[in-house]
Amino acid sequence: MQLVLFIVIVTFTPLSCEVQSESTPDIFENIDYMSKKCKDKLREDLVKKCGESSYQTQFVLVSECTYKCGEEHNNGQTKAKTSQQFRLNDWTPCGHDRVCRDGQCIDRCLLPFVNLKDDKVTL
């Protein structure tokens, strides 16, 4: 009887300690307005930037002019999820003929093409 109990415990203990992980879709597949080279550079920069934090070390999401770094933990008893959102730099492409400016994705044609005397840009 003790042998059977031992076998059951040994069999199921590793299963209860495994971290459940969901497959995350590759969000960069949806960014069709950037070349592969630019997407690869964006991904590399985001992974590096998120890795600089000692708390939110994983790149989680990019959406128009923001990106999110975070962590998810699940040891079978405790679940925790933390994240922090940041802005992409100004002039980062965020759509077809659109760029980031002050955290907003705006149409490139709204940007001034030349500096006019006494012209104030409002975005």
Tags for this entry?
disordered N terminus; Salp15; signal; 123 residues; elongated; Putative ixostatin; three-stranded antiparallel sheet; alpha+beta; single chain; glycoprotein
User: Which structural category do the helix and sheet elements fall into?
Assistant: alpha+beta
List low-confidence stretches. 3-25
Beta-strand residue percentage: 25-35%
Outline: elongated
Radius of gyration: 23 Å
The helix/strand series, from N terminus to C terminus, equals HHEEEEEE
User: What is the count of DSSP helices, taking H or I runs of 4+ residues?
Assistant: 2
The count of β-strands is 6
Major sheet characteristics: 3 strands, antiparallel
Q: Mean pLDDT score, rounded?
A: 75
Describe the protein's architecture and organization:
- By secondary structure, this protein is an alpha+beta fold.
- It has a domain at 28-110.
- The protein is built from 2 helices and 6 strands.
- The protein has helices at residues 2-17, 36-51, and strands spanning 58-63, 66-74, 79-87, 93-95, 98-101, 104-107.
- The strands form 2 sheets. Strands 1-2-3 form a 3-stranded antiparallel sheet. The protein has a 3-stranded antiparallel sheet with strand order 4-5-6, with no helix packed on it.
- A hairpin with a 2-residue loop joins strand 4 (93-95) and strand 5 (98-101).
- Residues 3-25 have low confidence and may be disordered.
- This is Putative ixostatin.
- InterPro entries: Salp15.
- It comes from Ixodes ricinus (Common tick).
- Pfam families: Salp15.
